[in-house]
Amino acid sequence: MKLPLNQILQGNSLEILKTLPDSSIDLIFADPPYFMRTEGSLLRPEGGEFSGCNDKWDSFASHDEYLHFTRAWLTECKRILKPNGSLWVIGSMQCIYAIGGVMQELGFWFINDVVWHKSNPTPNFLGTRLNNAHETLLWAAKDKKSKYTFHYKTAKELHSEIVGFEKGERRQLGSVWRLPVCSGGERLKNARGEKLHNTQKPESLLYRIIAISSNLGDVVLDPFGGTMTTAAVAKRLGRHYIMCEQNEEYVKFGRARLDSVVFEEGDIARASYDVKPIRVSLEELIASGFLHAGEKLYLKGSTLYARLLESGRLRLEGESVGVYMSGDFVRDLGNENETGIEGDIHSLAARLKGVKAKRLNGFLYWEVERDSKGRDRILLYDVREKYRQNLD
To answer: Of the chain's two ends, which shows fewer C-beta atoms within 10 Å, N or C?
Structure first.
């Protein structure tokens, strides 16, 4: 069956999911009914009525009925998810624990739970409990053996709220995301000027999810499309989308929304930060003339040096030999021969630096002279980068 790519499919979500082929979807984002169990009206302090999530689609007769519903759509999601695909589900305290339990029953493998910390949450009008300022996201793979997509370095680039980000500081993206709720011009309005959907999610939230856990050209599915935020962000990032939604009004406004969205070419969309560079050996650098057999390599920040061999290995000379053999080190007899002590740049750097690790990244610890008077040394890392640029 050919997938209905880049379409909003109107109808019952469960019935639509059943028509999709096995193992065909790369990423699923689901924002299912919350089963809020609200009763009566909630009034603002000034007396106006607050319109929370009181829609018909959020009504269930009992907890058992909600569990049955949850198990049904999650079962279909697991069937259509590719072996290395992943699933994100968002929910409030009323539903997320039930959803998580069903996910475990079905064999999903949790990767992370993420707290969406709302920077501008709706206040607790009655003052009877803590301000509900977060929702929980569950990120899971199809099973324990899945090799799911995660763009680690791209995630760092999206962690822009840290101090020093504009100056080049980068840190791991954690599991607490402080982002605003959907408001202002981003909030879709109906023909009467009222908010179209009570639980519209902000694009900033979906942007992180889709950017870090899918690839350009992947298929992203949302079984509860709503205002089509998932589709809008997927389109921005160059992914295909499939949206399920039964509400005719949501579908109408969602299609209009998507008409104005265009692909935004860039490093985030392509996950360029996570592209692994071409592996380069010292032998290749010697063969290409970027390094020369017989020249000296110096340990960064010291006078210790070694001689570069045609094989790409190093032979220690001068005081380096004494440092290698001294102190608390246990001699590596495998590195000794009749002509001296030899080794690769990584293990020798670790030995001479006196660290516990057996290997360091030698490209960051060995330097070569590129000045006839020996005044200018550059790291092997920089030599390698020049070689890679030359390949381009």
So the answer is: C
